[in-house]
């Protein structure tokens, strides 16, 4: 659906060439929500502008919907929708008239029907004749989403769609993105909101001029941190750190255990210890670990799989560069 090979964009600045996008190799699958993550100035918006044929690449190649960027630009623009961080509406015109203008430009056959459809879907029908300039930020963003979808594009580019929105408006936008995913559209989502990316995206790409890593959030967690079980031990059974270390030693003897760390656990002020166990498959191996610990007299408060946040993944990739190359 979207494919790039060595895509580059250079800009001239202060007498030298600045690389905004440097050798991007990427494939986004049909029907997936793909999150494009990176800091300010990473080149995310520049990438979207190239893929949407708003600016020309300096080097490399790209295809959108099977059409080559630079050779079929008008055809690509007719099959993609774009939602920018700033809605860019005609603020003195009504919501309905804003959409009718763009529906005409896109060559939509049933202009009035499509405009009504998306105003209703996004909860704006009752304000259809109000000037766009009187809308809240959230309402303007919803109107901009409607504008991007009027011609039913199979690919939608969304650049920071919930930036500067209040929590309720941001939730409305996220819920609508979920609806779009159910319709089989390909969504290319640039966002700084890692929680948003976690909830919405099938795969993510971490990017800073060059692509650092691409995979599902869970797969990147496993690659970077492995999998870990946390066993919290109730203090009355323990005779201090020595017994906790003895229990850890017995767990280390299991063939599938990679590492065991003993940590203080002062949950609720009750004291105790945690065993943090690195292993290949917690769901499969945890029963064996629990049976071993109970047989040695341990009282187990609870057992959890340690789940690193997407923020942990993102920061590790930004600072360390693995997997997929140096940042």
Structure description:
It is a single chain. The chain has about 325 residues and is of the alpha/beta class. The protein folds into 2 domains: about 1-220, 3-Layer(aba) Sandwich (Rossmann fold); about 225-305, Alpha-Beta Plaits (2-Layer Sandwich). Helix content is about 35%, strand content about 30%. The chain is built from 11 helices and 14 strands. The chain has helices at about 45-50, 75-80, 95-105, 110-120, 135-150, 165-180, 195-200, 215-225, 240-250, 280-295, 310-320, and strands at about 1-15, 15-30, 35, 60-65, 65-70, 80-85, 155-160, 185-190, 205-210, 210-215, 225-235, 255-265, 275-280, 300-305. The strands form 3 sheets. It has a 6-stranded mixed sheet with strand order 6-7-8-3-9-10, sandwiched between helices. A hairpin with an 8-residue loop joins strand 12 (about 255-265) and strand 13 (about 275-280). Helix 3 (about 95-105) crosses helix 4 (about 110-120). The longest helix is centred in the middle third of the chain and has 16 residues, at about 165-180. The chain is elongated, with a radius of gyration of 25 Å. The model has no long low-confidence stretch (mean pLDDT about 90).
Layout of secondary structure:
Elements: E1 2-13, E2 16-28, E3 33-37, H1 44-51, E4 59-64, E5 67-68, H2 73-78, E6 80-83, H3 95-105, H4 111-121, H5 137-149, E7 155-159, H6 167-182, E8 186-190, H7 194-200, E9 203-208, E10 210-215, H8 217-225, E11 227-233, H9 241-252, E12 257-264, E13 273-279, H10 282-295, E14 300-306, H11 310-320
Parallel strand pairs: 3-8, 3-9, 6-7, 7-8
Antiparallel strand pairs: 1-2, 1-4, 4-5, 9-10, 11-13, 11-14, 12-13
């Amino acid at each position: 659906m979207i494919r790039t090979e060595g895509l580059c964009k250079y800009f001239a600045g202060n007498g030298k060439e600045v690389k905004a996008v440097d050798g991007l190799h990427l494939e986004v699958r049909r029907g997936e929500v793909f999150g494009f993550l990176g800091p300010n100035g990473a080149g995310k918006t520049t990438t979207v502008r190239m893929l949407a044929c708003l600016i020309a690449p300096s080097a490399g190649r790209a295809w959108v919907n099977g059409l080559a960027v630079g050779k079929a630009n008008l055809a690509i623009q007719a099959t993609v929708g774009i939602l920018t961080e700033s809605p860019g509406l005609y603020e003195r015109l009504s919501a309905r008239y804003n959409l009718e203008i763009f529906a005409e430009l896109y060559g939509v056959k049933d202009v009035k029907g499509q405009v009504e459809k998306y105003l209703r879907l996004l909860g704006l029908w009752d304000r259809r004749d109000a000037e766009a300039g009187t809308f809240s930020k959230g309402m303007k963003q919803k109107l901009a989403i409607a504008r991007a979808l009027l011609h039913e594009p199979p690919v939608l580019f969304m650049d920071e769609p919930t930036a500067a929105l209040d929590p309720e408006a941001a939730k409305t936008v996220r819920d609508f993105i979920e609806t779009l995913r159910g319709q089989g559209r390909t969504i290319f989502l640039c966002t700084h909101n890692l929680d948003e990316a976690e909830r919405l995206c099938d795969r993510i790409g971490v990017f800073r001029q060059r692509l650092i890593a691409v995979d599902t959030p869970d797969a990147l967690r496993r690659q970077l941190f492995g999998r870990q079980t946390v066993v919290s031990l109730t203090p009355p059974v323990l005779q201090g750190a020595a017994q906790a270390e003895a229990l850890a030693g017995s767990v280390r003897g299991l063939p599938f255990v990679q590492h065991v760390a003993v940590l203080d656990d002062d949950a609720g002020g009750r004291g105790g210890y945690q065993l943090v166990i690195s292993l290949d498959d917690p769901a499969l191996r945890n029963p064996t670990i629990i049976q071993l610990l109970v047989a040695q007299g341990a009282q187990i408060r609870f057992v959890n799989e340690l789940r690193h946040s997407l923020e942990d993944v993102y920061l590790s990739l930004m600072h360390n560069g693995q997997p997929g190359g140096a940042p």
